[in-house]
Amino acid sequence: MNALQQDIAQLIIDTLNLEDVTVDDIPPDLPLFGEGLGLDSVDALELALALQKHYDIRIASDSKDARQHFTTVATLAAFVQAQKDACAS
Amino acid sequence: MSEQLVQERHWSAHKERGSFILMWLTALSVRMFGRRLLAPVLYLIVLYFFASARSARRNIRQYQIYLAQWSGNASLRPTLKSVFGQFIAFADNLLDRLDVWRGRLRFEQVQLIDPSGVRSRLLRSQHGGRGEMLVVTHLGNPDVCRAMAELSEQVPLNVLVHNHHVAQFNRLLGEAGDRSMRLIQVSELDTAMMMDLSQRLERGEWLAIAGDRVPLNDGRRVVVDFLGHAAPFPQGPWLMAGLLRCPVNLLCCLKVDGRYRIYLDAFLDNAQWQRGQRDEAIRGWVQRYADHLAGQCMIAPQQWFNFYAYWQPPERPTHKEAADAN
Asked: Which UniProt keywords apply (chain B) (predicted)?
């Protein structure tokens, strides 16, 4: 798990008050919704707000892409990195 | 069967019609007429509404029965006169709304009942304080937000609505020289909208949203007890408050003895739920809100202006159950 992935896993835990869950419990390829971590659409919204604030990025609303970015910590990290690079350039 | 269809017609269908009439009248009255000339026309419209809308009559009757039962006050039981009285109260309310929109109802004319000091927090938002939410109701005169804009002085107030005529309303507001109030259309909670609202709160702006009407295409509703019977309420305002982590206050404006009173009540210091207990938390808030609303119904029993079927129909199978039975 790279630093950004760890960072995001921690953000998920803090934002959603996931008690008894540590960063190690959220491997990068664990599905965040449904079977995996069991998040729902309101959690996703809460998480998106936190990500936007934390990384100062913009997340387009409810497009199919946005949903795909929220599949796992790995996809989220890739998305955040891409957004940050886009903003930096 | 057609009776049921009429009953099931959603409030937004009624509201749409009402809004158009109201906007049309507003525009017309600003240019030509005063209240005195408009009043008879409006009474005629409401009389026609009373005579023709059987379901609306029945729904008001149901409200009055529930209110009488719930309060144990037999004098509130419906009669033809009391049901008609509620329609007339609606006509008066529309006329008052015209005054509000034209800026005729000044803040000095309104009595403010604010035991928990919500207004002082509102004014503090000018000086770097974070904004908060106001949950408003369709009891009394919800358009008093216009007067609230004056109450809030320089604090911008964003009114969140499900209405499609936002652009027109905003234009009307602009023409009326109102810069501190803005209508925002929310059809769905999405990240862009929530981010925008979150930034508004950070800038010290306030948000107002109705807490007593379930939007058409939104499955997020919660059924709680209201006046002794199960009624659906929207989850949206409370989800929003939780996501934005902001305090929630209740705003209601009632006409008592011919004078408007604005009731401001602090409701939630900070809308937050424990992990996995979101639904329970929201249900608790909504039940408390419904109880508060019931108390306010007792202050102005005739000013309940939800003319559609507000409560869940008792013991009618849902579509799914009906399908299963077949």
From this structure: Acyltransferase, Cell inner membrane, Cell membrane, Membrane, Transferase, Transmembrane, Transmembrane helix
